[in-house]
Structures are given as C-alpha cells and as structure tokens.
Amino acid sequence: MVCQAAGTMSDYKGVKPGCTKDDVHQKLGKPVKADSESSEEYDLGNSNSLDVQYGADSKVRTMVLYFFSNDDKVPKFADVVGDTKVDKKDDGSQTAKLIDSKAKVSITMSRTSGDSPMTVITLRQSE
Length: 127
Fold this sequence. Notes:
mainly beta, 10 strands, 10% helix, globular, disordered N terminus
C-alpha cells in the first residue's frame, strides 16, 4: 500500500487506477481468477482478496480490496482516507469516502462491526 503525503491510499503494491493490465500482472503476478477480459481476482492471503476491473482500454478502472482478517495487515482509516470524516454508525460499522483530485481517484472504505469485521476498500478512477 502506498500513501500519499496527505495520508490517502492511492495504490496497492504499485497497482492503481489507470495502470495497464500488463502492469498489474507484472506487479501482482497471475490472478487466481479471471472472469473475463474486464475482471480479475487476486488472493492476498488470510482470506483477503483484490478484485481488479478494467475498462475497454485494458486499464484499471476500479480496484476493490476485501479484508476478512482482523490483524495488522488491514489498513487503518487514517492510512486510507487521511483525515476525512469517518461515519460511525450505531451498530459499530464505519464508512468514509474521499475524492483525491490530485491522484484522480475516489477512495471509499467501510468496515463492518463485530469480532470478525470485514473491511472493503475501493479505489476508483475519477474524471
């Protein structure tokens, strides 16, 4: 994960929206699943995964990271969305969204509540 100076996540292991499919394969290796020319899935270990969705130009449009572990591999809100306000719900779940105009990326993070929370981080190319 790379964080910009503002404390926002702009990529995962060098892969970010706008990268070519070849760049993704070079940085992450072979996907564990490719549903079509437009979607691939990568195993990150500990039941965690990354879905990469491509546009018609074979460039990354959206990346979705799924963390099912509750350990130090799961990024913190501050590392993903910086000082953006985190909406904390009564049930204990949390969400935050940031549009990083410099990186041209929309960043969304959500975490369910409970002893085994699921965390989802979405990086989407914005116009």
